[in-house]
Amino acid sequence: MANEALTKELKGIALQLRRNVLEMIGVGNAGHWGGSSSLAELMSVLYFHSMRVDKTNPKNPERDRLLLSKGHAALIQYAALCELGFFPRAELQRVKSLDGLLQGHPDLTVPGIEAVTGSLGQGLSLGVGMALALRLDQKPSRVFVIMGDGEQSEGQLWEAAMAASNFKVDNLTAFIDRNKIQATGRTDEIFSIPQLDRKWSAFGWEVITTDGHDVDKIIDAINQAKTIKGKPTLIILDTIKGRGVSFAENTPAYHNGTFDQAKYAQAMAELDAQKAVI
Amino acid sequence: MEKKSLRMAYGEALVEFGKTNSDIVALEADLGKSTMSCLFKDAYPERYFEMGIAEQNMASTAAGLALAGKIPFYSTFAVFAVGRAYDQIRCSIAIPQANVRICGSSCGLSDFGDGKTHQSIEEANLMCLIPGMTVLNPVDAVETRKMVKAMITHQGPVYIRINRNELPVYTPSEGDYEIGKMTRIVEGSDVVIFATGAMVWKSVEAAALLKAEGISAEVINVSSLKPLKKSEILKYTAGKKAIVTADEQTKIGGLGSAIASLIIGEVNVPFEQIGIDDQFGTSAHSYEELLVRYGLTEKDIAQAAKKALAKGTK
């Protein structure tokens, strides 16, 4: 049974995260709007509900870990870490600037970032290593890894998929942000990888598929994953690339696109209108 | 001269230090019986991860273990440990300065029979190129053990390369290994030979050949390829009439160019470089045969020293 207040809160946070991302990109600079925006609801659920997060100590040993294997969506993770208070809001304006805190891809210098990702395909392996270490230390912490659907062509992910099931790491949950568009076009046209769910279950994973923009369904999927023992769980999230800004939705140009003044104003107005009716 | 296996020393050291430090874990890509990480598996099976023949995943998994507080040693053949997982080493390990310890076993030409796909003529050079990476190249079993001990407490990633063959044991068993420090094996006054790994003993033999001809050669063990300290180099070039470098990697970006780049314009004496020309290895029935083929013997080193000294007298 969904908790209406919680649903409303998490939806509101998701919109705020999108707003933060848009602010970071600003006018005239290229930024990864598409694949950041498709993750807003997941980030909201993970950081503000499902994960063990210590707002006063990003390095609390008991924390859960979140790794963004699709590191180019760093802006949405920064948006969440900023809302948690892990660094001053002013850093958002300085993103990707010389001597700014926030690098173009996740870097350990940022409080709350757990690993260096961005060279695609490496995040799941990093997550397997962390999950093994936490298990050795008998910690209750869980590891969450977010992959892209375009990223599924990286062979290392499948090495990691086999390793995770070999080692039966059930404190590891992975996500695929299935937004169906990658840098230069539609994923099924660039490099088709059909039947992702069957592939992952053949690799020994429990697979759940759900709507990646429905916070209640995301919560349910994560709760279900926590009950699966003896193997890792993959949650495939069906999402819309660029979600929340009408002209950017399902548009490859906004994988790493630029907003002019008019587009920026329109995008911000659309996000604010959505927030007003939650 | 007693000879001992460096890879056996590596495996034994993992077991020895793993006994008191439960954060040490080991990963392997199906070559544990060759790298000798299998000894760790026998001693501490719960801390040993057989990753299968999947080096890229092994490298990033090791990084994950390190970022969660473990001290992972991952081992496989040098050519795969580095070449197959270069970007994983770069992004997962080196950029975050994760405490991963990488063991490249059967390095250089030491896997004589397997030929060019398994011999590595460039991996040490590649590792030296990565910012913040420490690169160690032990000369014997005793130094290997000391290096493993030093690697455990070192902050940041370390690469150690291990020769496949039994090599003479001649470094002292007492004391600890200090990363970045060179050691003098033979004292001499005319020419200084900076050598690394298996080439150090070849240089000691070269010094004996030179001595018979009235030439006094000093032999310096550069077992830390990185950090390579200018102050250490200058300590031993002072007063010498010529410099020779000797390593078992391609000359392009090898020990010779690393040393030359640090002292260029400051030490103006003739300089000769022993190493592998721009080519891959090949199969042979023995390591020694390959050292002859690629110009890496004591005679080649002695010849290079004489050539350098002769240039100085012109």
Describe this structure in words.
- The complex is a heterodimer of chains A (278) and B (314).
- By secondary structure, chain A is α/β, with parallel strands linked by helices.
- Chain A is 42% helix and 12% strand.
- Chain A has eleven helices and seven strands.
- Chain A has helices spanning 4-25, 33-37, 40-50, 74-83, 90-93, 123-136, 155-166, 187-190, 196-202, 215-227, 261-276; strands spanning 65-68, 143-148, 172-178, 181-182, 185-186, 206-211, 233-238.
- In chain A, strand 2, helix 7 (155-166) and strand 3 form a beta-alpha-beta unit.
- The mean pLDDT of chain A is 97.
- Chain B is α/β, with parallel strands linked by helices and 314 residues long.
- Chain B has two domains: 3-168, 3-Layer(aba) Sandwich (Rossmann fold), CATH 3.40.50; 183-309, Rossmann fold, CATH 3.40.50.
- Chain B is built from 13 helices and 14 strands.
- Chain B has helices at residues 6-20, 32-35, 38-43, 55-67, 78-84, 86-94, 123-129, 141-153, 198-212, 230-237, 255-263, 287-293, 298-313, and strands at residues 3-5, 24-28, 48-50, 71-77, 101-105, 134-136, 158-162, 166-168, 183-186, 191-195, 217-221, 224-226, 242-250, 271-276.
- Chain B has a seven-stranded mixed sheet, with helices on both faces.
- In chain B, helix 8 (141-153) links the parallel strand 6 (134-136) and strand 7.
- The mean pLDDT of chain B is 97.
